[in-house]
């Protein structure tokens, strides 16, 4: 889960967007940045989360103990999902997207390593997330699953960085919610709850980065499963009955990146990622690496790196994406940077 036991030293000045020579040098530097881990799975420990230091008993799963105040907070957060996509609210996304166009007919899954940060989010309603998602359809007919990490005080009651998911079958008009706040997502892991609070997050300029590898994919039974492959942990699933198009036809769009929500009437947008964007500087900027999607190749489902010719970069107001390319080194592979400081709702006030 939370990884990053090794470190690296790198000449930051050499890592810039630019000509082919600088790109080649950047690839060499990226390869040198691979942390040397003592144990690839040395990250999540039950004692960091559970009082009994073990997790739930076998054949049971964690369910959060709720107060009346927490129940109301969860209800408010879930009811606001539809409002986020209509009216005078801001939803900012910076990252990459790939649409299913020939020879790709459909997507059966998404996967990536996400660097973990703790952006400062204040007030009632706003959030900042790093997310990967798969969807089918458009507008009010979209069916979608998002997974990643999020700082959402209104949802979680704190400013920590949590694992999360949210989904819809009608563009968030009447259906969908976060985590297990409504029927749909089924918790399977007895150790890692879907709203798990990461005990450690990355520090800017630190050589040690905390990461989480997430994989969301459709099984042969048309269910969707969320796993943490490094931990060999299955977090949970959505039964095929939850979705229509996503179950029958899989996804026609996949996206990876940062997402920030600012409710209408609020004029300060929260930061995305680690609150900075420095093109070419993986040490200073939030990133995703080893980005994969699952498609059918010669009749067999396979996880593959994005076709660079099909990748569409996306930026929004004062949030940016950059350095997307495939390092082909077995560690970074397809990777990109994203983030920004946020600020006022007019572009001249945005910081970066």
UniProtKB/TrEMBL annotation:
It comes from the Eukaryota. InterPro entries: Glutamic_endopeptidase (IPR053168), Neprosin (IPR004314). Residues 19-39 are annotated as: Disordered. Residues 87-351 form the Neprosin PEP catalytic domain. This is Neprosin PEP catalytic domain-containing protein.
